Amino acid sequence: MLYPQRFSQFTREHADTVAALLCGLLLFLGWFALHLGALGLAFLLLPAAYVIGGYESAREGLTTLFKEKELDVDLLMIVAAIGAASLGLWRREYHLIIDGAILILIFAISGALEGYAMQRTERSIRSLMSLTPDTARVLLQGKEEEIPITQLKVGDEIVVKPGELIPTDGIILSGYSTLNQAAITGESLPVEKTVGEEVFAGTLNGYGALQIKVHKPAQSSLIQRVIRLVEQAKTQAPPSQEFIDRFEKGYAKVIVVAGILLATLPPFLWGWDWETTIYRALTFLVVASPCALMAAIMPTLLSGIANGARQGILFKNGAQLEKIGKVRAIAFDKTGTLTTGKVQVFQVISLSKYTQADVLKAAASVESYSEHPIGKAIVQAAGDLNLVGAVQVQAIPGQGIVGIAQEQQIIVGNAVFVQKYVTNLPEELREMAQSLEREGKTVVWVAKNPTPNPSALLERGAGFEVMGIIAIADEVRSQAAATITRLKKLGVEQIVMLTGDNQETAHSVAKAVGIDRVHAQLLPEDKLDVIRRLQQEYQTVAMVGDGINDAPALAQASVGIAMGVSGSDVALETADIVLMADRLEKIAVAMHLGRRSQVIVKQNIFVALGFIMLLLVGNFLGNINLPIGVIGHEGSTVLVTLSGLRLLK
After folding, report:
1. Distance (Å, whole) CA 232 – CA 155
2. pLDDT tens, 522-570?
3. Could you confirm whether 333 is annotated as catalytic?
4. In angstroms, rounded to a whole number, what is the distance separating the alpha carbons of residues 572 and 361?
5. Which one is catalytic: 333, 474, 526, 576?
6. CB neighbourhood size of 254 (10 A)
7. Is this structure's pTM higher than 0.70?
């Protein structure tokens, strides 16, 4: 029972693909039957190929005709295919039935490809919805009770335990913790939150329990706004798609009207006999069908997609391959995109009597008991230093940590905390720390007291001396600066950086990679607004990001580019292009592929239109018959298809 169910599910999800495959199979078998002279079998197989492959195009074409009073290429192709088949039956030239089936097969394949491109929006929304829990733990008359988030009201008090997701936006009433907000605001370091500060739904609570008051309806939370923004941006048809739709309708109208006129007027204007008139009208429908024009585009784009896939660039549809070649402005998220998104020790500075290893080892000995990301980064950096575990370790939230290691009392924390136990901070280290902080680094001070007396921890100046400082930072990707330089050489007019981090950190990273324009301290809707302003000025804008907070901007941008390894699920689903190996330099490769695809497509369109014009003129003058017309039509299609395959190189 399992296999029939899976097969049934597959056919439902990939109905267009199954139809195209069946059409192709029946077409081949019908052709083979004709080749063997089995006309009865061929006349059974080929109509089935017409019906299976052309059903969706016929349905869409007729729906457009009757409901919107418009003609489109879908209906034109069906008319051309049926016309070729009818002429083949009339003149007993059965190979023309094959030509009609080929036209339908081409459209069936195109429809299947379009179907896959239309499934992304629903997946994106589902991924977003999974970021928030379904229930919240509410305090009712002093007791905890779980209720659905949809039932939360403004004023409710909820409890969030360590390691849980925040269920809705709110204000902290009691408790202290660090929250990982990278998925929402893009901040590279977890943020310390305490009483009176706002927390966002979808962020991850750290080590402390929090009591939160709901201050806005759950549906108005930041994550829900992100969901709505993604949904809205993804449902807006880009101008290029609207232009293609208008072109198809206009082209179909011209060809149909011209075909009707060609089938009726020549006997009255030039004295043609009716057999010749109908013959040339049907030939006109075949040679004027836009298969060569369609082949001028899709094989080229598919080749570019295959080329990109080999190089770790995933294009989700062919339209984005074209658009990336037209990009005039690019916006980069900072955390996880221009940077690795992983907190690391940036620099260790020691006083003269100590080495950098001494400072790092002392700090790591007490931080090995800490769950704080900064502590973990210090321990990771000291991995080869044969650490000795500390005892009597005590963490002071928001300030630092203390403990005893090798009979020495160690203090690790911010300047204000360490200064409680050290009479004076060395001036040279203070200046270096201030300089590092201006660059956006987090500075940790390390001090020790060789007297093994726990009570000394509570006494100012009780033998403590500063050993040095440790600067913590989110590491800039090694290829980021070279990528920005390359993009500028490619002619990108504007490159900006968008981040939820503070101004100092943002400008330090921007300076390191060569970006001049920076927008800092942004929420998801702020990033969306920046993208919209860029589109007003530069039209085609790309956005490169990796987090949930980037999803609305990725959806709004002309081309959304996500980091494949570090990117969140929703960023990957929302984006149009994914860099599978997180290699920023592949953006320039993608732009080059896009520009090459534009050149090849233009060449192919010129060739396709040229063939159509020659065949139309030849048909009107009576210098070609239907077989030659079909050969010219199919030949031009093959020619532009082979031309498009050049992009595989």
Report:
1. 30
2. 887 888 899 999 999 999 999 998 766 788 888 889 898 887 655 555 6
3. yes
4. 39
5. 333
6. 13
7. no
